[in-house]
Amino acid sequence: VQLQASGGGLVQTGGSLRLSCAVSGISVSMNGMDWYRQPPGKQREFVGFVTPNGRTDYADSVKGRFTISRDNAKNTLYLQMRNLKPDDTAVYYCNFRDNWGQGTLVTVSS
What we know:
4-stranded antiparallel beta sheet; 10 strands; 6-stranded mixed beta sheet; mainly beta; single chain
């Protein structure tokens, strides 16, 4: 399994970004997957998940602002982030059963 997150960057408070996770080795449509993030100097933390049947759930800190989706044809997972805050600054990772891949850095300026 290979996971490659992309789409990070610098954004102002209140802005939006969409992260992508290109997946190979498994089908995103048939597997549950997660997003995690690691803020600077802190431990990795859960952001949200999507189940094989499409159910999603999120950490309280991002609920109502972040949305997970997937494109089965592209075998890609997405994380749409809106109303970003400085506390959202982190390296973001997609995950499948402890397969982490390379993350993407999101920096939210105040």
